[in-house]
Specification:
heterodimer, A: alpha/beta, 37% helix, B: two-stranded antiparallel ribbon, 13 helices, 70% helix
Chain lengths: 241, 373
């Protein structure tokens, strides 16, 4: 579909938790500037895919490539240095660090003080609520604010690829709308996004392409538009009878 | 807390055992301790100078207990391991500094302008040594066990504690001429430090104000002990609260996976916690050696126990808590030594620990940390 090499590519990735196989040969590509979404039900392996990309778990076989260079088997803190940042499932903000310190941690691998300050402003512009609460402890924020903080924290690392794991989880519909608009805006500012979502309707609305995951395997891959019109997707994930 | 019954509306058969337990504990303490406590307070008021003297002793003890307690709390905060070998790292610090004192040939007669810079150098070397030792212990005895179970590194820590005590014993056999005989003739016996700290009373000018009867002493020794501890504790506090690495350490303690996802090298951060704890323990070992004038291979056990208690009292994992806990344990021990009986001091300290844990299970400054999976 595109002549450029993909920014991020997974080739036949198999991942295990102990002896339980969670990913059974995942192959996918994310091109520069895209929003790609992974949809699927609980336990399909969406989060495991992101955890494998980030290096929290290593694939037992298969390859993960960033810019055509393999990044499987390097520790998570080195994956971050290469520009792959994740806003993990359940937000996982640091509850006893202030909002500002949480954001500072997102920029841990960077040393350009001026650039960090600039990006902090950018995050505060995206999420004005975080500016208001900059000195509050992360744990005192509401769920929506924590989600904003988790996304903002990942942005602080100037990601080339931003991995978002269930950013809409547990949020009120108004907030979900808001979060998705911001993801679109982040993407339009030039960040490539790999979005994992259970809320397939919203995800397919903002994504360029999508993959459908079922029990550790990709069963469908197409443009977001085509997927949202696909009968199987409509039945299983969009609630269309 | 979890066992406390909630449903009291219906039958009345739900007995609030937790509440009864706590009330009876209070009644017990009031009945048995009210009279002695009252007498003690009267005693304190009757002789304020004695009280002041004990408070100064408590402060100096609290200073070194805080230094060691921080090592327990830093490590527990980040890997949830009670590092049983920590007290022995403190002992090694004392031995290391004594060895260096021998090597440099420092004596009470050494002129101050030579003595103090060298002592500062010895402090730095000792801290670097125990810091490296502590990092090495984590690397070889705990790291591989960390993913196995929680009990395995704990048992390993007890093993390391025994090893270090034996190292201390063997260290006592060193007889190199270069050491100037600091290890004495008996390997097992307590080693004596030369009197390197100033002993003049800094409060002497106050006698002019309060008259001859004023006998409270606060010596240069006390000042150096407290001053060094305050500087080190302040530096540590600044590091952990303000610097990027310090924040990364707290972040790792709060959520290890999330910290890794931010690009923080978790293993290196854990090493850093051991490094800082080891350095502080080494400083404490040297300070106590110089202050008390002795060091012995098993000195780490009791100091470790007191310091661990201090860390728990303040809320384990909480840095300010460890400092506060250390100070409190020091003060309580000094007061109990004087007003109750030195024999009862351990009982008093652990009694207070039990009381505080009954009412505040997370310690004085501890926060309710959600259980990690």
């Amino acid at each position: 579909m595109s002549t450029t090499t993909p920014l991020l590519e997974l080739r036949n990735v198999h991942s295990y938790y102990g002896n339980i196989q969670a990913l059974k040969g995942i192959s996918l590509t994310v091109n520069e500037g895209e929003i790609v979404t992974l949809i699927g039900s609980n336990g399909a392996g969406k989060s495991t895919t992101l955890r494998t990309i980030s290096g929290i778990i290593h694939p037992r076989s298969g390859e993960i490539l960033l810019d055509n260079k393999r990044i499987d088997h390097i520790p998570p803190h080195d994956v971050v240095k290469l520009g792959v940042l994740q806003s993990p499932e359940g937000r996982r903000i640091f509850p006893r660090l202030s909002v500002r310190d949480n954001l500072e941690m997102g920029a841990f691998t960077r040393n350009d003080t001026a650039g960090i300050a600039e990006d902090m402003e950018r995050v505060f512009d995206l999420f004005p609520r975080l500016r208001e609460r900059a000195n509050q402890k992360g744990g005192t924020l509401s769920g929506g604010e924590q989600q904003m903080l988790a996304i903002g924290r990942a942005l602080m690392g100037r990601p080339r690829v931003l991995l978002l794991d269930e950013p809409s989880m547990g949020l009120a519909p108004v907030l979900v709308e808001q979060i998705f608009n911001i993801i679109k805006e982040i993407n339009s500012q030039g960040t490539t996004v790999l979005l994992v979502e259970q809320n397939a309707l919203m995800a397919l609305e903002i994504a360029h392409r999508g993959y459908v995951l079922q029990t550790g395997q990709i069963v469908l891959a197409d443009t977001a538009k085509a997927l949202s019109e696909n009968e199987m997707v409509q039945k299983a994930y969009l609630g269309v009878e | 807390m979890a066992t406390q019954t909630v449903d009291t509306s219906t039958t009345g058969r739900n007995i609030p055992w937790g509440l009864i337990g706590r009330i009876s504990l209070v009644v017990f303490f009031v009945l048995f301790l009210a009279v002695p406590l009252w007498n003690t307070i009267l005693e304190m008021i009757a002789n304020p100078q004695l009280l002041l003297r004990q408070l100064i002793i408590g402060l100096t003890n609290g200073a070194y207990i805080s230094l060691i307690a921080l090592g327990y709390t830093l490590v527990y905060g980040i890997v949830e391991l009670i590092n049983f070998a920590h007290g022995d790292v403190y002992m090694i610090g004392a031995f290391m500094s004594l060895t260096l004192i021998g090597l440099f040939g420092l004596q009470a007669a050494t002129p101050p302008e030579v003595r103090y810079p060298l002592m500062l150098l010895i402090l730095v070397i000792t801290m670097a040594f125990t810091a490296t030792l502590n990092v090495g212990i984590e690397r070889f005895a705990y790291r591989r066990l960390r993913t196995v179970s929680r009990l395995a590194p704990l048992i390993s820590a007890i093993g390391v504690s025994f090893i270090l005590q034996n190292v201390g014993l063997l260290w006592g056999y060193l007889r190199f001429p270069a050491l100037n005989g600091v290890m004495g003739s008996n390997a097992v016996a307590p080693k004596s430090f030369p009197n390197l700290l100033p002993t003049q009373n800094l409060l002497e000018p106050l006698q002019a104000v309060f008259g001859e009867g004023f006998r409270v002493r606060f010596t240069g020794k006390d000042l150096i002990m407290i001053g060094t501890a305050v500087v080190l504790l302040g530096a540590l506090y600044f590091f952990v609260q303000r610097t990027k690495l310090g924040k990364a350490m707290r972040a790792t303690a709060q959520d290890r996976d999330a910290a890794a996802l931010m690009g923080i090298n978790v293993n290196r951060t854990i090493s850093l916690a051991f490094l800082l704890g080891g350095a502080l323990a080494g400083a404490a070992g040297m300070l106590v050696g110089l202050y008390n004038g002795t060091a012995v291979f098993n000195m780490g056990f009791k100091a470790g126990l007191f310091s661990f208690t201090a860390a728990v009292l303040g809320g384990i994992g909480n840095i300010t808590g460890a400092m506060l806990g250390g100070l409190l344990i020091g003060l309580i021990a000094a007061l109990s030594d004087q007003y109750i009986n030195a024999k009862w001091t351990n009982a008093v300290i652990f009694g207070i620990l039990v009381l505080i844990l009954v009412f505040r299970p997370t310690g004085l400054l501890g926060e309710n940390v959600q259980q990690k999976a």
